[in-house]
Amino acid sequence: GRIVRLNRVVDEILAPHGYPSSVNRVLAETVTLCALLSSMLKYEGIFTLQTSGDGPVSMLIADMTSTGQVRGCAGIRDGQKEHLLTASDDISTLLGKGYIAFTVDQGVHAERYQGIVELKGTTLVDSIQHYFAQSEQIGTGIVLAVGQGTDGHWQAQGIMLQQMPEERGKVPGQAEEDDWRRAMILLQSCRSDEWLDPALTPHDILRRLFHEEGVRVYAPHALSKGCRCDRARVESVLNMMSEADRRDMTIDGKITMTCEFCNIDFTFDPI
């Protein structure tokens, strides 16, 4: 199993954008799922979780480096922001028809890997569980809790349990199947307000859920909000553009480039 709590981190990711509440919620879920899924892998580089759909929210993207820096942003189609103020959290309403992709990019150290699955159900969790059931054939249970605290700050927590693979040639017995069903029932018994209660540590929650089964917890890894944008990198992109393109981008004698992840503007003299 894996458990992640991203209270301060997810609030720092959402705060600069001013997204509608429905978009904040589904982006917080994307960031939390990114952290959960990347923790399954041993990699040196960047893990990316991205959705693309034909709905009002055209894109959700979150990525995490192997050193624990995470970021995320959303794309909203022109003229749809007002509609999203009252939209439900159902991904079929927000994202429409589309796909969700997992990408592991280790640069020159290894071949780039990508898995793609169709958006299914009413939540992102439905799509992820569909992927594991169809592509990996691994029993997977995921619970996410996302909300705003009394101080208005966003907080998020997630947990993912998976069945251990059976030994080669061994057929799962009734006892193993009963253990798995019991674990899934216990997992679903925890309420959202418990998941998000700052007074309860992840250890407290695991103890409440699985004290009869016994829990072994490995050393935790700290995560932080981190964007890889900087002025030099943005300038290098501008240098690769044609003079005509740079001229078209010039407004009031300057070129302004905005990082979609952290919403920071970089301003340049076109010359």
Shape: globular
Mean pLDDT: 90
Tell how many strands the DSSP assignment holds. Answer: 11
H/E element order? EHHEEEHHEEHEEHHHEHHEE
| Residues in β-strands, percent | 25-35%
Structural class, judged by helices and strands? alpha+beta
Q: How many angstroms does the end-to-end distance come to?
A: 54 Å
Strand order of the largest sheet: 6-5-2-3-4-9
The oligomeric state of the chains shown is single chain
3D architecture notes:
By secondary structure, the protein is of the alpha+beta class. The protein is built from 10 helices and 11 strands. The protein has helices at residues 7-14, 21-38, 81-84, 91-94, 124-136, 174-188, 192-195, 202-210, 231-240, 243-249, and strands spanning 2-5, 46-53, 57-65, 69-76, 98-105, 113-118, 140-148, 154-162, 224-225, 255-258, 265-268. The strands form 3 sheets. Strands 6-5-2-3-4-9 form a 6-stranded mixed sheet, with helices on one face. The model has no long low-confidence stretch (mean pLDDT 90).
SSE layout and pairing:
Elements: E1 2-5, H1 7-14, H2 21-38, E2 46-53, E3 57-65, E4 69-76, H3 81-84, H4 91-94, E5 98-105, E6 113-118, H5 124-136, E7 140-148, E8 154-162, H6 174-188, H7 192-195, H8 202-210, E9 224-225, H9 231-240, H10 243-249, E10 255-258, E11 265-268
Parallel strand pairs: 4-9
Antiparallel strand pairs: 1-8, 2-3, 2-5, 3-4, 5-6, 7-8, 10-11
Features:
alpha+beta; 11 strands
Give a short summary of the structure.
By secondary structure, the protein is of the alpha+beta class. It is 34% helix and 26% strand.
